[in-house]
Amino acid sequence: MTAISEQTIRDEAERIFEAKGRPIWSHPLDYWTEASNLLARKTASEPKREARLARIDFGTSPLRTASPQGHDAGQL
Fold it and tell me: Which of 14, 20, 27, 74 has the fewest CB atoms found within 10 Å of its own CB?
């Protein structure tokens, strides 16, 4: 796990503060714990996400569908 800088936590806390509508009874730094927990979870999940993406073969994915040949997608 990599260390999260104080500035990164401060920026995330301010982002959360703004997203919550800048409540008049709080200050951006009141969200420090919430921001640090969120960043820690995000940092911990990165290796798992990269491992999942490495296993996916985007060229043969069963979710990929072929578009009709010779037809404009906008025409019915």
Answer: 74
